[in-house]
Write a structure and sequence with these properties.
Oligomer: single chain
Strand content: 5-15%
Number of strands: 11
Organism: Paramecium primaurelia
Mean pLDDT: 78
Helix content: 40-55%
Membrane topology: Multi-pass membrane protein
Radius of gyration: 41 Å
Protein name: J domain-containing protein
Distance between the termini: 95 Å
Main location: membrane
Pfam families: DnaJ (PF00226), Sec63 (PF02889)
């Protein structure tokens, strides 16, 4: 219902009107508010990728080795496939539907005539210069057409005729004409009318059932489903994107003397990996062959209590023949650690399995740190008994050793020098009586000081040196300070600060550090460093540093007395542990002393400004004292005047 319909309403008892025109404008406004952020969310990934080139700059940090470049191609393919996810396609469908609705709303906008003010000349279809006789003639002519008796099928015939009558009265009656000029209508000043921005078809009886059904569907079905879906996702994953339901498994599996095979077991039984299923018969055949190869490799490596071997032996003891039920993820993880070639049929499962393990490890580390800080000892009931275990720095260190083995694709007994491709694949053809170099020494030395063994062929030396430069040459600095620099003697009640700074020396200043280098990992990955500060084997502080910055820092502030009581000599141990490289971890002692507060005497020094403030009156007193001084001055004047009068 537009302006004219609202203007011609004649006290029909309705309190509120359903305004079609207002509904259209309201719908356009709401659709615009919804469409704009939706368009932004659809266009932003495309814009940042192809216009700003963020992913291009990101992938430029990938090392130039063969495996890293292969991972780069796979990452780019995966990035392109991300546009075809169900969520993105569904978002586009919603956007198209909303755009069609917006277009339909714009097409049905009321024309300019409908929203104009009351114009009697336009209603009577005459010029403003028309005479009184022409006005009467036009009124008679149009009234014959619009009379309700001649238009019984038109529901708005009565309103149109009333509007015509008002226009005629406005031009023939001087009083109403003046009211029209002053207020815009012949009835004078009108009270405020309120309308509902909803379509008028809702008032029709035949539409009420359908409208109520739609409202019922939205409020009782659609909205609860959306809310429940969102509630399920909230609190389901941790900050690493790993399901929180894994927490109980990790609590029971983690231990201080964690072995790498325990890490394999915990990872393979996680909710993300235990649901892996084979889709084809060829996958089952290839995995069965891979299991036999792993069994032979475990025998060569003399691995005791190898899980896959034990599962095979257990299945042979069963009377009925059954398919070997070994975790698919466990088979793929061990194949990765042993460096076995992966069959083409299960490569996609293999890549997705290895890719998620560093995230699982980060969740394990975070959980171990939280429990070591809060409870020191984990306790749970199993088989009618309470079992307890301690989680300290060694537990976290062992978990990260497993992460290093996963990223580099090597077992815990393998030499860290095998992270360089030549020593892992070709050295056995050339080494006879020589020794393998120490990996950490090669990486940490300056370029001109690196010396390869004599048995390494000259044709491979340049390639080896280039690959060594891909590993981080790390400089670690630690600094212990007190917040108040003016303090000469430190006591255990002061606030101490331990600042750790990591600098990647073989990355030029102003450049981003490259992604982690690996000849076996299945995806591009950023370098990460876990910072642990321990005191008497208990984890005191934990932080995780990663990203593209050449220099990274972390700082922790604490009061010694709050944590350690009356201890005055402190010997912390700083662990800097890589999550992707073996043999580059550092263990650095941090020692300092702090006297007891009772052993030192500190003169309390006040700043000059503070002393001046102490001498000045508070605000309330400064407001009251002038009033008191005025009263005292007036009293003294009265006394002087009384003395003069007495004299």
């Amino acid at each position: 219902m537009g302006f004219k319909e609202a203007f011609t309403r004649q006290g029909d008892g309705e309190n509120l009107l359903f305004d079609d025109d207002a509904f259209i404008y309201f719908a356009i406004s709401i659709l615009t508010l919804v469409i704009l952020p939706l368009v932004y969310s659809v266009i932003k990934p495309l814009f940042t990728t192809y216009v700003l080139g963020e992913n291009k700059r990101k992938f430029a940090r990938v090392p130039k080795s063969c495996n890293d470049q292969q991972n780069l191609k796979l990452a780019k393919q995966e990035l392109r496939l991300k546009w075809l996810t169900t969520g993105y396609v569904f978002k586009i469908i919603i956007l198209v539907a909303l755009l069609l609705m917006l277009n339909a709303s714009i097409q049905s906008l009321p024309n300019a005539e409908k929203i104009k003010g009351f114009d009697p000349y336009e209603i009577l279809e005459i010029d403003p210069s028309a005479t009184e006789q022409e006005i009467r003639k036009a009124y008679r002519k149009i009234s014959l057409k619009l009379h309700p008796d001649k238009n019984p099928d038109d529901p708005q015939a009565n309103q149109k005729f009333i509007l015509l009558t008002k226009a005629y009265e406005c031009l023939t009656d001087e009083d109403k004409k003046s009211l029209c000029m002053k207020y815009g209508n012949p009835d004078g000043q009108q009270s405020l009318s309120v309308g509902i921005a909803m379509p008028s078809f809702l008032l029709k009886k035949e539409n009420r059932a359908a409208f109520l059904a739609v409202i019922f569907l939205l409020l009782l079905v659609v909205v609860p489903i959306i809310v429940l879906y969102e509630l399920r996702s909230i609190g389901k994953y941790d900050q690493n994107g790993i399901m929180l339901s894994n927490q109980e498994k990790f609590e029971r599996g983690l231990e201080e003397n964690l072995l790498i095979k325990k890490g394999v077991e915990l990872s393979s039984c996680s909710d993300e990996l235990c649901r892996l299923r084979l889709k084809t018969e060829q996958q089952a055949i290839d995995l069965e062959k891979l299991v036999n190869e792993l069994k032979e490799e475990a025998e060569l490596r003399k691995i005791q209590k190898f899980e896959i071997t034990e599962a095979l032996e257990q299945s042979k003891k069963q009377k009925k023949k059954k398919r070997v039920t070994i975790s698919i993820a466990m088979i793929l993880i061990y194949a990765h650690l042993f460096g076995k070639p992966i069959p083409e049929s299960v490569k996609q499962l293999y890549r997705s399995t290895i890719k998620i393990i560093p995230k699982l490890v980060n969740s394990m580390v975070r959980l171990a740190f939280e429990f070591s800080m809060k409870y020191k000892v984990i306790q749970w009931r199993q088989r009618g008994r309470f079992q307890t275990k301690f989680m300290g720095a060694r537990c976290i260190n062992n978990i990260l050793q497993f992460s290093q083995c996963i990223v580099q694709g090597m077992y815990e007994t393998d030499n860290p020098i095998n992270q360089i491709d030549f020593f892992a694949t070709k050295a056995k053809d050339y080494i006879k009586k020589g020794k393998m170099p120490v990996f950490q020494e090669l990486v940490q030395k300056q370029v001109d000081q690196r010396i390869l063994p004599n048995w390494v062929p000259e044709e491979f030396k340049e390639e080896i040196m280039n690959e060594i430069n891909m590993f981080p040459q790390l400089d670690i600095k630690q600094e212990v300070t007190v917040d108040d620099e003016s303090i000469v003697e430190q006591c255990n009640e002061d606030i101490f600060s331990i600042k750790i700074t990591l600098t990647r020396l073989n990355t030029p200043e102003g450049e981003d550090i490259p992604f982690a280098h690996s000849n076996r990992f299945t995806y591009v990955k950023e370098e990460g460093w876990h910072i642990l500060i321990t005191f008497q084997n208990e984890v005191f502080y934990y932080s995780f540093l990663n990203g593209s910055n050449r220099v990274q820092t972390t700082e922790f502030k604490f009061q010694p007395k709050m944590y350690f009581g009356d201890v005055v000599e402190f010997e912390f141990i700083l662990f800097v542990i890589s999550d992707c490289y073996r043999g580059l971890d550092a263990e650095i002692p941090i020692k300092f002393k702090a006297k007891k507060a009772s052993q030192i005497s500190r003169a309390v020094e006040y700043h000059k400004e503070d002393q001046e403030l102490d001498k000045s009156l508070p605000f309330i007193q400064s407001m009251l004292f002038p009033m008191q001084n005025k009263v005292e001055d007036s009293d003294s004047e009265d006394e002087d005047q009384s003395k003069k009068d007495d004299e």
